[in-house]
Amino acid sequence: MSTEVLEYGVGDNSYINAGGLPGITKLVDDFYQNMDEISEAKKIRGMHTKNLTVSRKKLTYFLSGWLGGPRLYAEHYGGINIPQAHKHLTVGAEERDAWLLCMEKAVDEQPYEDGFKVYLMQQLRVPAERIRMVSGS
Fold first, then answer.
1. Model confidence over 42-71: pLDDT tens digits?
2. DSSP state, 6?
3. Is the pLDDT of residue 1 over 50?
4. Within a 13 Å sphere around the CA of 67, how many CA atoms are in the beta-carbon half?
5. What is d(CA 121, CA 2) in angstroms, rounded to the nearest whole number?
6. Which of 60, 61, 84, 96 is the most exposed place for a label (fewest CB within 10 A)?
7. Lowest-pLDDT choice from 4-13, 54-63, 85-94, 122-131
């Protein structure tokens, strides 16, 4: 295996560092598992349907393209404006932080390089904050 370090955020490097589609799928599965188990996430879990199959697929497909891999979300669902797609929800600081907590725990569970874990969480804070600004307080 190559020891070459891939610069995050360039081309498909983040997608590769996330383990491609299998790695992203595992991340999303762990994220939603955390949402089911973490008490701070009860409110945001309630914003989802009981069956998370579609939510899991949409987040996996979104992250694939967002991380520089195949644009699966666009191929299957069309374009997306993340803040506008969540505008119907009330997402304040508490909900944003609960979402980020679930994702941070999921990221920590992955076999990613430490630097990529830090980078990924920094990047995920941007859309989380934008959603809060559009839909919450």
1. 999 999 999 999 999 999 999 999 999 999
2. P
3. no
4. 29
5. 25
6. 84
7. 4-13
- Is 34's pLDDT higher than 50? yes
Q: How many CB atoms lie within 10 A of CB 68?
A: 18
Which pair of structure tokens corresponds to residue 128? 């989380």
Domains defined for the chain, CATH in brackets: 13-135 (1.10.490.10)
pLDDT of 4 reads 58
What would the two tokens of residue 58 be? 């949409």
SS3 109: coil
With 60 as the cut, is the pLDDT of residue 3 above it? no
How far is 25 from 59, CA to CA, in rounded Å? Answer: 9
In angstroms, the CA 127 to CA 121 distance is 11
Q: How many helices (H) and strands (E) does the chain have?
A: 8, 0
